[in-house]
Amino acid sequence: MRLTNRFSFLQFHAGQEGSSLVEFAVTFPLLMLIVTGIFTFGIAITNYMELTNAVATGAQLLAVSRGQTTDPCAVTAAAVEAAVPTLNSKSLSFSFVINGDSYPGSSCSAGAPADMLQGTPAQVTVTYPCSLSVYGHDYVPSCLLQAQTTELIQ
Distance between CA atoms of 11 and 89, rounded to whole angstroms? Predict the structure, then answer.
């Protein structure tokens, strides 16, 4: 009697051995899509955090470099590029606003040294393209990471 009770459990589930395999095969692609999306989004957030920290460092350098260089924007751009070694430095786009005058690009030797007056604002803006592509499908094709910091010139 006791022996048949043990095997009655197996008889109850007879014919259902492959159902868990089918369920796994159906849910696995969706699970992998979600996990890969989480990793891709995490990489984009990490890139944004690195870019934000680098721009803050570059803006601080720009704020204290008054009178020490003929092209403070190039020095700042080099500092930002050095602070984000994991990003492609050729994809970084720089924009500077010093004492109300805009300087697009990574050079401002034309008028920036004269604009760098103590107590005036210096703003550094850097953009970087990001990729939110999961399994060949780019979910946000025009994704741009942008970091901006303003410091007072010392």
Answer: 65
Write down the residue that tokens 């989480």 correspond to: 38
The per-residue pLDDT for range 34-92, each reduced to its tens digit, is 999 899 899 999 999 999 999 999 999 999 988 788 888 999 999 999 999 999 999 99
Nearest CA among 45, 59, 57 for reference residue 145: 45
Query: The whole model's pTM is what?
Result: 0.78
Q: Concatenated DSSP letters for the chain?
A: -HHHHHHHHHHHTTT-TTHHHHHHHHHHHHHHHHHHHHHHHHHHHHHHHHHHHHHHHHHHHHHH-TTT-S-HHHHHHHHHHHH-TTS-GGG-EEEEEETTEEEESS--TTTHHHH--TT-EEEEEEEEE---EETTEES-TT-EEEEEEEEE--
Cβ atoms of 87 and 51 closer than 8 Å: yes
